Predict the structure of non-specific serine/threonine protein kinase.
Amino acid sequence: MLNKHKFKRIGFPSFSSMRLLSHLLVLFLQLVPCVVCQVKEFVSIDCGATSTYTDPRTGLAWVSDTGITRHGKVVEIESPNGDIQQYRRRRDFPADTKKYCYTLNTHERRRYLVRATFLYGNLENGDTYPKFQLYLDATMWSTITVLDASRVYVKEMIIRAPSSSIDVCLCCASTGSPFISTLELRPLNLSMYATDYEDSFFLKVAARVNFGAPSKDAIRYPDDPYDRIWDSDLDKRQNYLVGVAPGTERISTPKNIDIRTREYPPVKVMQTAVVGTKGSLSYRLNLEGFPANARAYAYFAEIEDLDRNETRKFKMQQPHVPDYNNAVVNIVENANGSFTLYEPSYMNMSLDFVLSFSFVKTPDSTHGPLLNAIEISKYVHIIPKTDNQYATVLDALRSLSLELDWTREEGDPCIPAHWEWVTCSSNTAPKITKMTSIRWLDGNSLTGPIPDLSNLISLTILHLENNRLTGPIPSYLGNLPSLRELYIQNNSLSGEIPPTLLTGKMVFNYDWNPDLILRKQHKQNFKLILGTSVGAFVIFVVLLLGSLLQLRNLRRKTSQEKNSEKRDSLRIIAKPLNAYSTVRGGSLMDEGVAYYFTLSELEEATEKYSKQIGKGSFGPVYYGKIKDGKEVAVKILADASIHGTHQFVNEVALLSRIHHRNLVPLIGYCEQANQRILVYEYMHNGTLWDHIHDSGNQKHLDWLSRLSIAEDAAKGLEYLHTGCNPSIIHRDVKTSNILLNINMKAKVSDFGLSRQADEDLTHVSSAARGTVGYLDPEYYANQQLTEKSDVYSFGVVLLELISGRKPISIEDYGSEWNIVHWARSLIRKGNVASIVDPSLVGNVKIESLWRIAEVAILSVEPHRVSRPKMQEVILAIQDAIKIEKGSRGYLENSSGSSTMQPSRKTLLSNFLDIESSDLSKGYVLPTAR
Ligand SMILES: *[C@@H]1O[C@H](CO)[C@@H](O)[C@H](O)[C@H]1NC(C)=O
Ligand SMILES: *[C@@H]1O[C@H](CO)[C@@H](O)[C@H](O)[C@H]1NC(C)=O
Ligand SMILES: *[C@@H]1O[C@H](CO)[C@@H](O)[C@H](O)[C@H]1NC(C)=O
Ligand SMILES: *[C@@H]1O[C@H](CO)[C@@H](O)[C@H](O)[C@H]1NC(C)=O
Ligand SMILES: *[C@@H]1O[C@H](CO)[C@@H](O)[C@H](O)[C@H]1NC(C)=O
């Protein structure tokens, strides 16, 4: 009976080689950058396979999982249609309380499609169909319930990799034993499938349907260079696509379709569609795991040649989303052309298990609705993994004895099933409370010293007895706040037992360690203490002298090495700054020491302040030239009252210790006659603002120079955030505070002063410091300042660099008035080309642009937790530089290739294209991507 079930193929196109060639050519030449490199990054694991092989259908290389997992057994399948090699064998795992995992390497924050497939194959008499669970890291992915032994069950998850690897785990069988057929990892490109929620949610694919498909076979690689599986609408699985409206017809075209929007669906999928010739299109399908919140995409491309007097306009009727059912879709208009993809999407839609959807034509339209494809994915909340600090320690413990079976459990120590030798708390962020006895393991042989467990602050019980541990007992064990029981008996530990373990506050068994020394309770011997403390004092003094001498040597050395720009580290100010006389004696521009200028020296240097070169956040800036010929920028602090003498001197001390090649160095200062003046290195090429916005006599900045300036500035900020102690928040990051030296290297200016200034201001005013257009809205709202406020401002800087536009401008952005809203809505529509500075068009690669656009948009997220750290921003910029220096794919001039990233006409009440959520009254609103 069962044999009659048709073995369901994950179809590959029945291609003639000509057709394949032409597809590949199209892909290579126009659509997707570098298909070959993509494929190299594919990970295709055939679970249960006996060898590595290349699938002749696709040219994809499959590896056996033999070297990847040590568990389970291979089961041969007598499949009725066993011609797909991946499904000739499966791997079965024991039905026990453990979990069995595959670890896949990823690039953190890159997006991937992860796919696991399951074909059970044959059911012997007495077998029960398996039912078990599939996890991605600690997140429940799916329950695999086999109901049909000859069907391939496909589970796909779209993720942004949370770290440098992911675990795919099987566990918790309720019937039968867990098994798996294939495991695939497919990197996605650019911003494909980015969502607003990707920090906390994975996307579990619920439906991806190709309408008007030529056969029942699904379309995947090589038609889809990202190897998504596009199910055919002819595939009649249970409850799949029913309720089709009468008059629905299938159409197709051999013409190329421009699919370059955001998700890059395969051309082949877009070349077919269904049309409602009687005025409507409708379908019903089941969505596994729903009701839930979903990300939904519709793909439309006009593939009929419409006459000038013909139109195709329609509205969505179902699902019912008030406000949006009235919006009219006109594909040609929305996509700005026929044979061009229009890809509206809902960012967050609440859908039921049964999804009914329908489109109806408007009365004035001559043609009925058309649909090429849809995709629907469920948001799956990412469950946090066990705190990484435990993982590190556990790795160390395991490394003590690699031979033992218990060290071989994979995946997360606690979720979904905990490792046998650990006990976990059941909080949302699980912690290991107990590492239990390993004494029951025979021949157990933990050898070597006790690994570093000092991070395990919630560890309550530790059993390490009956092993062969050597070395001393670390004294921090006595200070672990939760540790109540410690068993180390029957080992070969040596040295003195730390007294903190002997205070009686914990159960402590250290028998059978012959080399352990138990110190006699120290009888308080006054003389001894006195003796030792005198001794200690002498030693202390000697040490002090020694270090002073060393310091002197060091200083001598550093002043010899002065002007070396390489050293980024903090340096000690050796001379007290409030004792001016000693400072005066110092040699000019001793590193780390701010030189003290008198007012008259500065008057002379600036020729009586004759040449103003700018206005900083704190006051006017003048050009000057000091005695040794060095050019300087002299900054007068306008509001002297906010800086008392003492504070000012402290700040100068702080500032002069901050040295980084991307920060404008402070050379000296003056504090005299109620004047407070700072003297900085002069930056010949002025501000970044002038270079971007003042088209006058400035040199034009090409994209690569902009990237390199961005990288410099980002490094300067990162140093302020992480390299300084205390760390410094700039608070006024903007293009006019990014200065360019004679070699066009960027340095950040005006940092550091803000700290003090603001502390003084807090009781006077609650106004946030910063510049309109760059100001972090969250800081503005609640006055809480973090490094992420600088990240926000820097995001605005990046948008300026991309677009060449000012942060705020009514002319440029209309009612949105600021660059953030304007750019965000366009970028979310996948329309990055339309925000590019016109002077860059033709000389920018779309990929590097995307990389920057993406990180810029993340940086200006309204909530600071969603914003990246400066370090991540730097990485993105460096990525973009790498891409840009490569040699492919320039974004062409818009007149030459208007369809590349068409800026779409936005209908006023555009149906799927409306952004964001402020209209919500209980119902869920679509947003655009
Ligand atoms: C896009 O994909 C190509 C290979 O197809 C790869 O070389 C490139 O780095 C990818 N771009 C990004 C931004 O990931
Ligand atoms: C989607 O919208 C719902 C309702 O407004 C909200 O509760 C949820 O957090 C949103 N995001 C996701 C990923 O579900
Ligand atoms: C459009 O015009 C053509 C002639 O140019 C005519 O044959 C056709 O019927 C017209 N179609 C409609 C819908 O009016
Ligand atoms: C000590 O541990 C060894 C294994 O390392 C075990 O064979 C022996 O029985 C243990 N001795 C005691 C007294 O528990
Ligand atoms: C639409 O396409 C035409 C050429 O087909 C082009 O001239 C026009 O600028 C485009 N409009 C938009 C808004 O992109």
Summary: The pocket of 2-acetamido-2-deoxy-beta-D-glucopyranose (ligand 2) is lined by residues 197, 201, 293, 348, 379, 924 (CB under 6 Å).
